[in-house]
Amino acid sequence: MQLIPCPWCGPREEAEFHYGGQAHVAYPEDPRALTDQEWARFVFFRDNPCGPFAERWSHSAGCRRWFNAVRDTRTYELLSVYRVGEPMPEVSERDEVVS
Amino acid sequence: MRADTSVRTSPLAAWTDRLADLAPALTAAERPFLTQLTVRASDPVAVARMGEALGVAFPADPCTATRGGGPFGAVEVLWLGPDEYLVVAEPDRRVPVEDALRAALRPARGAVVDTSAQRTTIALSGPHARDVLAHGCAIDLHPSAAPAGTCVQTLVARAGAVLRVDDAESGAFTLLVRSSFAEYLAAWLSDACVEYRAALS
Ligand SMILES: [Zn+2]
User: Which residues form a coiled coil (chain B) (predicted)?
Assistant: First the structure.
C-alpha cells in the first residue's frame, strides 16, 4: 500500500485518505454572470494530464485536513505535498517525496 | 413500570469480563465516562492561556499529547489537527473545565464543545499489546518511532481511533474510539489476541 505524506501528520497509509479531485479550480468570481455552458465547464471539466497533476486530498481518518499534492498520473508517485493556500511547487518528475 | 433513565451505561459495560479475560497477553479495560472537550482555536495566545488555565500546556507538535495536573485534577490534551485539540479530564469535570476553557479562549475566536459521549476509552498494556495492535494498525509503535506522548488519529482494524502511547517501553496505550464502534473494536481485540493467549497459557 502506498504511503501518503500528510503535511501535518507525516506518512500514513493510503486508506486514511480521501481523494478530492483536481486542485486550484477557482470558484467563479461572478457566479451570476456564468452561462450554463460555463457552469458545466466549471463543475464537470477537469484536466487529464499524462504526468504531474495537482490534486486535493483529505487526511480523513487522521487530522481531517485538506491539502494539495502533485502526483504523476503515469506512476502514481507523489512528487510533492503542500498546504492549501500555498502555491504549487515546481516539481521535477523524479522528486518522489514518499520513502 | 418505568424505565430508569438515570443510570449511565458505558458502551463497553457488557464487555468488562471478556476484556479482563484477555490477560496476560493483553490487559484491556474500559475507562468510561471521561470528560472530553473538543477545542478549536488557532490563536497561539489563546491556546497558551487555555493551557495555563488547565495547568498543562497544549501540545505544540502534531501527533503528540501532553498531560499534567492543576485546578481540575489530571488533564490530558491531545493534538487532533492544526487548530483542534481534545481535552480529557476525569469524569464529571465537564462544567468547570468547559467554563475555564471558554474564559481563557476569549476574546479569540474558537469553540469549546462537550464531546464526552462521542468516544469511550480503552486502556491497553501487556507483553503483546504492540503485536495485537499491529494486526490492524499501520502505525509504527516501536519505542524508537513512537515514544511516550505520541498521539495519532488513525485506523485500528478499519475503525477510526485516537491512539496514544502512554509508556513506549512496556507498551501501554490508550485507545479512544467512537461509542458506536466500541463493541466492534472490543470484539476485534479479543479475536486478535487468540494466538497470544494460547502461547502464554
Ligand atoms: Zn494529517
Answer: none
Chain A residues touching residue B138 (CB < 8 angstroms):
1, 12-13
Confidence grade of residue A90 (pLDDT, cut at 50, 70, 90): confident
> Which top CATH class is B35-114?
alpha beta
Q: Return all residues near B185 (Cβ < 8 A) that are at least 6 apart.
A: B122, B156, B157, B159, B161, B175, B177
Place of cell 491497553: B124
Q: Does B152 touch chain A (CB under 8 A)?
A: yes
* ipTM for the assembly: 0.90
* Residues of B in Cβ contact (< 8 Å) with A64: 81, 153
Q: What is the pLDDT averaged over residues B166-183?
A: 96
Distance B137 CA to ligand 1 centre (A): 16
Options 2.40.50.140, 3.40.190.10, 3.30.1360.120, 1.20.1630.10; CATH of B15-32+117-199: 3.30.1360.120
> Residue A98 pLDDT > 60, yes or no?
no
